[in-house]
Specification:
heterodimer; A: 116 residues; mainly beta; seven-stranded mixed beta sheet; four-stranded antiparallel beta sheet; globular; B: 111 residues; six-stranded mixed beta sheet; five-stranded antiparallel beta sheet
Chain lengths: 116, 111
């Protein structure tokens, strides 16, 4: 089966610019996650969707980050305006099960963002 | 505070040698623990998952152990290969479904 797709793979922007990332989860997966992974750290959950509803966005910096999953399939994550500390890899993951439980999360290749 | 600590931070070994990576956690209540392998430039891929009642789980040359009493887990890699060079991340799921990620151990296997 096809894996989680993300685009772009790399993005370089200047601070205060805007950027958007796209994720297409594995077909049939109800739950979708966006993570931020700073170099040398483990991933940090930004937001979790179940179908098109937000389950957890407690660690999403809502003053500059936004995400949507309007039709319960693809999702976009936006940063506006970007700061230097936003430089990181943004990982999208999806799982078949509902939020919680043992459902394995399948990760996409990530988008590496560099803010200069 | 729920935390996952991994050691060592980085490790260099020669091809063919064995190694063991450590994971200590303070997550409570505990649901399960996974070890992920993350190749450079790729997303993490699950290697093993263990629940409270499981002490050991193998996946080829990878063997994970879990001691739920001491809240410790290890990942043992046997007969390492160059392709084992990656970051290995320990992830603990709390009973409410929240995931707590360790910072990972960066393993380099040299010829």
């Amino acid at each position: 089966e096809a894996g989680v797709a993300q685009s772009p793979r790399y993005k370089i922007i200047e601070k205060r610019q805007s950027v958007a990332f796209w994720c297409n989860p594995i077909s049939g997966h109800a739950t979708l996650y966006w993570y931020q992974q700073i170099l040398g750290q483990g991933p940090k959950l930004l937001i979790q969707f179940q179908n098109n509803g937000v389950v957890d966005d407690s660690q999403l910096p809502k003053d500059r980050f936004s995400a949507e999953r309007l039709k319960g399939v693809d999702s976009t994550l936006k940063i506006q305006p970007a700061k230097l500390e936003d430089s990181a890899v943004y990982l999208c993951a999806s799982s078949f099960g509902l939020a919680g439980g043992r459902a394995e999360q399948y990760f996409g290749p990530g988008t590496r963002l560099t803010v200069t | 505070k729920n935390q996952v600590e991994q050691s060592p931070q980085s490790l260099i070994i020669l091809e063919g040698k064995n190694c063991t990576l450590q994971c200590n956690y303070t997550v409570s209540p505990f649901s399960n623990l996974r070890w992920y392998k993350q190749d450079t430039g790729r997303g993490p891929v699950s290697l093993t998952i263990m629940t409270f009642s499981e002490n050991t789980k193998s996946n080829g040359r990878y063997t994970a152990t879990l001691d739920a009493d001491t809240k410790q887990s290890s990942l043992h890699i046997t007969a390492s290969q160059l392709s084992d060079s990656a970051s290995y991340i320990c992830v603990v799921r709390g009973s409410q479904g929240n995931l707590i990620f360790g910072k990972g151990t960066k393993l380099s296997v040299k010829p």
